[in-house]
Amino acid sequence: MSVVVVGGNDRMAARYKDICKEHNCKAKVFTQMPSDFASKIGCPDLMVVFTNTCSHKMVNTVNSRSEKHNIPIVRIHNASVNALKTVLEQYAR
Question: Is the whole-model pTM more than 0.85?
Answer without folding.
Answer: yes
